[in-house]
Write a structure and sequence with these properties.
Layout (H helix, E strand, L loop, with lengths): L1 H16 L1 H30 L3 H12 L12 H21 L3 H33 L3 H12 L3 H11 L5 H30 L4 H33 L6 H21 L4 H10 L7 H25 L3 H6 L1 H25 L4 H10 L5 H13 L4 H23 L1 H11 L2 H23 L1 H35 L6 H39 L10 H27 L6 H17 L1 H41 L5 E6 L11 H4 L1 H5 L2 E7 L2 E4 L12 E6 L1 H11 L16 E6 L11 H4 L1 H5 L2 E7 L2 E4 L12 E6 L1 H12 L10 H8 L1
Antiparallel strand pairs: 1-4, 2-3, 2-4, 5-8, 6-7, 6-8
Helix pairs in contact: 2-3, 2-12, 3-12, 4-11, 4-12, 5-6, 5-8, 5-14, 6-8, 6-16, 7-8, 8-9, 8-15, 8-16, 9-11, 9-20, 9-24, 10-11, 14-15, 14-17, 16-17, 20-21, 21-22, 21-23, 21-24
Length: about 800
């Protein structure tokens, strides 16, 4: 007995003398308890059919320090730090699904929706601040945290609902990405407001600028390097370890870079996924790292549950419910209005806002910042946690019934208001279509994009040179005297091709605008040729002056001292004068390298994803249509009548999409087309509709049985990929029927089904186009749609850029 007691005392003394080992053991024990709790939550949620997020939060509440004493967890701070990896891997996976062209197409609506919900939440906080006794600063903090949404909850709700690729899901995900950017800005703004009691516009502008530089520089460099690196690692089973280690290193490395640059680590994680998105390796990386994502996501939600303080929240339970209800109505209504005003379908806007109304991680950061700065009280923090838990618990149920809720709201809206809403959407679609057809806007779009891209890349070079020179100056050594000028010489050399690229693109834009203004193609030009050239050069000089002033204004805080700055500008001038042709060659090679890399990656990824995505959408939004051939005989009631007289669509729901007669086929025949014996009618519809149509058409006059032949027409579908033949094109502009002999009978756009689409309907990336025609024609059409680029080289601004140079 005594020997056992002495052994235990000796072991305890040794543990006290080795605190590092003890801390390690505590971490292992805490992590083990958390994972056991998460495992039980998963088992119970599957057994009783409730969302697993409820189980995670309940497990965290029971394991934390606010329900049982002593707590099961010895170091909650350590577990909280581990849970941050859940947010990082979540943003990494969102980045892997990032589609730049898709984001560009709905960026405007997303920004408008984000502005609407942010303004609404800040106003709501000001309203409730009066009875709660808060001042303006506290209401600003509370409104800001209500405006944020939980990325973890959004992705969990959407994935559990099986709607991750739908239109409303994409809206919700893009809004959460923009909210992470907004969160970084809010932290800077709120800190300035708390310290100086005023809004610092200058600081906000600097943060936006530096964030843009960081994002563009990381994305461009990573896009050129990372996909090639993962391809070289291999695709066999032996390379799984290497892919796992390298991908996690990329995620955490960029997260650290973002943190060192005073941004959110989640921003770096998102960029790590974005540089690999739409590439042939993205899906494999996602599959390999899925277990890490799920593991740390479980830890995150359990940790959130540990922070629940039931006693404090119950004291203000009525305020928690009131604020949650007002936040739900205000955020969803304002965000939906903003998205709908920008042209998004109201149902998609409503469901997207419902999916993302819950608050969590960034809201907690804002609440803790207020307490740290001493401008908010404990009650505000408790209310923030209470609203977060209430909204997280409500999110899955509200999202599950969001379709029914929207249908109920539509029934309550007066018919006159619904008519005005439809008119507004059609009006907006017409404007968008008209702008999309404007040749001048289409030609200058690419040069403007490249100028913006080069603006951030060049400023990134200057910022990197500024940081490097400051680091060198802190080193006490003789060689540092020459290091600073050398750094700026290298920066000038790297900037020279970019400056040239900006000049060339500006020259192209000015040429396009002056050509449109002076109507060069007119038989009688408005101005003589030499006068147009003079005006073109004058306008180009003015544009270059304004652009240069903007460049210098943004880069001024990071440029070196006067002597080094003069050296920097002299090197740029010498490079422009002596190496103009070489710089053009370098710039052209750089553009070709990047565009080729991006196009090949998108093409490979699109080919791999096409069938999987179509299958996924068909499973979620089944559209069970098919084509059936019916041959008319002499003794059926349809013979001798016009298609109009049959009233086939109204009677059965099926449509006649083609008529074959004497070896010729007529697509989409007119309503007055007469029918004769031996005609081959190709019907489109569901199985039940086709059976009903066959019975109607083949009803025998004298009791004989109808005759059917083998099908010669078929239906197929094609996914509109970014940068391909149909993307950003209308059906009329694509000349589908004239060129390929097929008919577009429907378009699946997320949850929306467009039957008998108009010729001027603008197709978008992600649409599924259903076409009917002969199998050979369908094959040719599908193959053409999978190839990138347009058939009209004159529509591309790249040809014009070469002509200008």
């Amino acid at each position: 007995m005594h020997l056992g007691l002495n052994w235990m005392l000796t072991l305890a003394q040794a543990a006290a003398e080795t605190p590092a080992v003890s801390q390690t053991n505590n971490l292992v024990a805490d992590l083990g308890i958390v994972m056991v709790g998460a495992a039980l939550a998963v088992l119970l949620s599957q057994r009783f059919k409730f969302p697993v997020i409820f189980g995670y939060l309940a497990a965290g509440a029971l394991l934390g320090p606010n329900v049982f004493q002593p707590s099961f967890i010895s170091s909650i701070d350590t577990i909280t730090q581990l849970s941050d990896l859940g947010v990082i891997f979540l943003l990494f996976f969102i980045g892997l699904d990032f589609d730049l062209k898709r984001v560009r197409s709905i960026l405007g609506p997303a920004v408008l929706g984000l502005i609407g919900q942010t303004v609404a939440m800040i106003y709501l906080a000001q309203v409730i601040a009066i009875p709660l006794g808060w001042d303006t600063t506290e209401s600003l903090f509370f409104g800001s945290l209500l405006a944020m949404s939980s990325s973890m909850v959004v992705i969990k709700v959407l994935r559990d609902g099986g709607n991750l690729q739908s239109n409303h899901a994409q809206l919700a995900l893009i809004l959460t990405i923009l909210e992470d950017v907004l969160g970084v800005l809010l932290l800077v703004i709120l800190t300035g407001v708390a310290v100086s009691r005023s809004f610092d516009w200058a600081s906000a502008g600097v943060v936006i600028f530096l964030m843009g530089v960081f994002v563009v520089l990381v994305f461009v460099i990573g896009r050129l390097i990372a996909p090639r690196m993962f391809v070289k690692l291999g695709t066999d089973e032996k390379s799984r370890e290497a892919v796992t280690v390298v991908s996690v290193g990329l995620v955490l490395g960029l997260s650290v870079m973002a943190f060192k640059a005073n941004f959110s680590p989640a921003l770096g994680a998102f960029l790590a996924g974005a540089v690999l998105s739409q590439t042939s390796v993205a899906r494999r990386i996602e599959d390999i790292n899925r277990s890490l994502h799920d593991l740390f996501a479980a830890i995150f939600f359990v940790t959130i549950g540990m922070q629940l303080q039931p006693k404090l929240i119950l004291q203000d339970w009525h305020w928690v419910l009131i604020i949650t209800a007002l936040m739900l109505m205000g955020k969803v209504a304002a965000g939906t209005a903003g998205l709908a005003l920008a042209g998004q379908p109201p149902r998609s806007a409503f469901r997207g806002m419902i999916a993302k109304f819950a608050i969590a991680e960034f809201s907690f950061i804002i609440a803790s910042l207020g307490q740290t700065l001493g401008v908010t009280d404990q009650r505000l923090t408790n209310l923030a946690f209470g609203v977060a838990f209430a909204s997280i618990f409500a999110s899955p149920m509200l999202y599950k019934h969001s379709n029914k809720a929207f249908d109920l709201m539509v029934r309550l809206v007066p018919p006159r208001a619904q008519g005005w809403a439809r008119f507004y959407r059609e009006f907006l679609d017409n404007i968008t279509t008209s702008l999309g057809r404007n040749m001048v806007l289409r030609l200058i779009k690419r040069p403007l994009f490249q100028i913006t891209l080069y603006f951030f890349i060049q400023n990134g070079i200057i910022v990197c040179a500024y940081v490097a020179s400051n680091m060198v100056q802190k080193i006490e050594a003789e060689w540092t005297t020459y290091a600073t000028p050398a750094i700026w010489v290298a920066a000038a050399a790297l900037s020279a091709p970019l400056v040239l690229a900006v000049v060339r693109n500006l020259n192209a834009i000015v040429f396009i605008l002056t050509d449109a203004m002076f109507a060069q193609n007119s038989p009688r030009p408005i101005f003589p040729k030499h006068l147009r050239i003079f005006f073109n050069n004058l306008l180009l000089g003015l544009v270059l002056f304004i652009t240069g002033a903007i460049y210098l204004a943004t880069a001024a805080p990071f440029l070196p001292a006067t002597s080094v700055l003069v050296l920097f500008l002299v090197i740029l001038g010498i490079a422009a004068i002596l190496g103009w042709r070489q710089l053009i060659r370098i710039n052209s090679q750089m553009e070709y390298w990047f565009m080729e890399t991006f196009s090949m990656q998108v093409q490979d990824a699109a080919r791999a994803k096409r069938e999987a995505l179509i299958s996924d959408i068909r499973d979620k939004y089944p559209w069970p249509v098919q084509v059936k051939e019916v041959v008319l005989t002499d003794n059926v009631v349809a013979v001798g009548r016009r298609i109009r007289d049959l009233n086939l669509r109204a009677e059965t729901g099926a449509s006649i999409v083609a008529v074959g007669r004497e070896g010729r086929q007529v697509l989409d025949p007119g309503a007055d087309t007469p029918l004769f014996p031996g005609d081959h009618l190709f019907l489109l519809g569901t199985t039940e509709q086709l059976d009903a149509a066959n019975t109607l058409l083949q009803t025998p006059v004298d009791g004989t049985q109808p005759v059917q032949n083998d099908q010669e027409f078929a239906i197929d579908s094609v996914l509109v990929n970014p940068g391909t033949y149909l993307d950003d094109n209308t059906l009329a502009g694509a000349s589908v029927r004239q060129r390929f002999g097929v008919t577009v009978v429907g378009i699946q756009r997320g949850e929306e089904r467009i039957t008998s689409p108009r010729p001027d309907l603008l197709l978008k990336a992600g649409d599924i186009v259903y076409v009917v025609g002969a199998p050979k024609s369908l094959k040719i059409f599908v193959n053409r749609c999978e190839k990138p680029g347009s058939d009209d080289p004159k529509s591309s601004s790249s040809a014009l850029l070469g002509a200008v140079d």
